[in-house]
Specification:
Helix content: 25-40%
Low-confidence stretches: none
Order of helices and strands: EEEHEHHEHEEEEEEEHEEHH
Distance between the termini: 32 Å
Mean pLDDT: 93
Strand order of the largest sheet: 1-2-3-4-5-6
Oligomer: single chain
Radius of gyration: 17 Å
Length: about 230
């Protein structure tokens, strides 16, 4: 499996491109702010063709570029049903000062246009797309529809893990290396996050490679031993 990731131009949100191999179809995960040019370069260099955009949740820093990416490739956006409403106008929920900053830095948009093709996902649903099998793990707390996405493969040439890796989890803003997603934004819930950590994150095997929405990659084994939030709920 091929995985390449790079940070967006704002908030250091990780955008990932996942494919079976060079020259194949791919999925784009969480196209955030200012990623379009870099994403085009990655797709061209690796000769990849987007088959879908996967969204771990509906916050603006993860979905800002979803519509141009989808419309430019004629592909659907996939998001958990509980965060579907956020795609109607994620900019409208932002502080006006932040909206002004984004417009100055990345260009004024004539309002938000949601993707024309949105597919709603459900917990434990499995989707087959771009030659990949993706399992949806609903893990609310950061938002109502936050989801992690499990692929039962690992990228080539991954090194540094203390165990042999068996699968890849795109964790969004549920869990990071050494931390978890904040729960104080609209739609967030600390009790829901704790429940997700206990019932969705902790059961993952130590051999899972975790690719977070922000920050470096990690493993479940490392987080089980060192992440203070997981230690608290365990």
């Amino acid at each position: 499996m091929l995985v390449t990731g790079f940070p967006a131009q704002a908030f250091d949100t990780n955008c990932y491109v996942v494919a079976p191999a060079v020259g194949e179809e791919c999925v784009v995960v969480d196209p955030g702010i200012g990623v379009e040019e870099h994403l085009r370069e990655v797709l061209t260099q690796l000769k990849l063709r987007p088959a879908a955009v996967l969204l771990t949740h509906g916050h603006i820093d993860h979905v800002y570029s979803v519509t141009p990416v989808c419309q430019g490739s004629g592909v659907p956006a996939l998001v958990h049903a509980d965060d579907r409403y956020r795609l109607k106008d994620p900019i409208g929920t932002l502080d006006p000062g932040l909206v002004s900053m984004l417009e100055q830095q990345f260009g004024r948009r004539q309002g938000w246009v949601e993707p024309s093709d949105v597919i709603e996902l459900a917990d434990r649903q499995t989707v087959e797309i771009a030659g990949l099998t993706v399992e949806i793990l609903h893990a609310p707390g950061h938002t109502e529809g936050s989801a992690m996405m499990r692929i039962p493969e690992v990228p080539e040439n991954v090194s540094g893990a203390s165990v042999e890796l068996t699968d890849t989890i795109l964790t969004g803003d549920v869990v990071f290396a050494g931390s978890i997603g904040r729960t104080d934004l609209p739609g967030g819930s600390h009790p829901a996050m704790l429940k997700s950590l206990r019932e969705v994150v902790l059961p993952l095997p130590d051999s899972s490679l975790l690719l977070p929405g922000h920050g470096p990659a990690t493993t479940m084994g490392r987080e089980r031993q060192t992440n203070p939030y997981l230690l608290e709920v365990s």
